[in-house]
């Protein structure tokens, strides 16, 4: 996946939800300067932690997840550059899930006080942040429909279409490739790793996806959207 200038990621994401002025952009640029690098399989914040910071993904892919009593993991959201991780979780006082990296990531930790400042003193940013929260909820609703009603092959195709458009919305315009493992995809779709492997093989055999350097590619997004019966309205992106 093509890398982006990290300082632009939050601005690019939020500009999908509200019109930002120069003052807004300068403040957002200040927020992302103190990032940290994390390897794959690292917790950004763990279940039970006090959410002292709001975390933002600047590079890589992270996830929101829970671990079942038998040790299995359920991924409930994928977080890409520009995404806030549980923007308003500080209101609850304690994490009821974990947020971890799936690939190498760069993450910025924003103190609660600075989030409160944005919501109070920067009305354009506040509107955009509420938009982002509402879109997160819409994506979760779509994932519930996916897991409950769609066949596994269409479910995976639908997820790939969603990620394709989410990356496009933050300025990516190159060849799409997804550096997620089949284990990670199975945790996301709620199927076994063996089933995920069969689904990937079937989509590849039908020419709906490709595999290059162990990453999923999309040769024809329109064809994949048709197969997935994908309606992008739930992403609420500018037309």
UniProtKB/TrEMBL annotation:
> What region holds the HTH crp-type domain?
150-222
Database matches in Gene3D superfamilies: Jelly Rolls (2.60.120.10), Winged helix-like DNA-binding domain superfamily/Winged helix DNA-binding domain (1.10.10.10)
Listed A to Z, the keywords are:
DNA-binding, Transcription, Transcription regulation
| Record-linked InterPro entries | cNMP-bd_dom (IPR000595), cNMP-bd_dom_sf (IPR018490), Env_Response_Regulators (IPR050397), HTH_CRP (IPR012318), RmlC-like_jellyroll (IPR014710), WH-like_DNA-bd_sf (IPR036388), WH_DNA-bd_sf (IPR036390)
Protein name in UniProt: Crp/Fnr family transcriptional regulator
Q: Which organism is it from?
A: Paracoccus aurantius
């Amino acid at each position: 996946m093509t890398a982006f200038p990290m300082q632009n990621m939050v601005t690019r994401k939020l500009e999908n939800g509200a019109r930002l002025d120069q003052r807004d952009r300068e403040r957002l640029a200040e927020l992302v300067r103190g990032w940290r690098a994390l390897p794959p399989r690292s917790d950004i914040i763990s279940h039970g932690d006090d959410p002292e910071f709001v975390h933002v993904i600047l590079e890589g892919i992270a996830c929101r997840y829970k671990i079942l009593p038998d040790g299995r993991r359920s991924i409930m959201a994928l977080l890409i550059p520009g995404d806030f991780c549980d923007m308003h979780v500080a209101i609850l006082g304690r994490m009821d899930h974990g947020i971890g990296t799936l690939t190498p990531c760069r993450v910025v930790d924003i103190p609660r006080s600075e989030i409160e400042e944005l919501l109070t003193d920067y009305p354009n940013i506040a509107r955009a942040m509420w938009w982002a929260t509402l879109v997160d909820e819409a994506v979760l609703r779509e994932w519930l429909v996916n897991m409950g009603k769609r066949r596994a092959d269409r479910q995976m195709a639908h997820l790939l279409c969603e990620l394709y458009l989410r990356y496009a919305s933050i300025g990516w315009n190159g060849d799409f490739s997804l550096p997620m493992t089949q284990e990670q995809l199975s945790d996301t779709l709620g199927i076994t790793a063996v089933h995920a492997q069969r689904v990937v093989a079937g989509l590849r055999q039908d020419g709906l996806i490709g595999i290059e350097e162990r990453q999923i590619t999309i040769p024809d997004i329109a064809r994949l959207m048709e197969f997935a019966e994908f309606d992008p309205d739930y992403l609420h992106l500018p037309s």
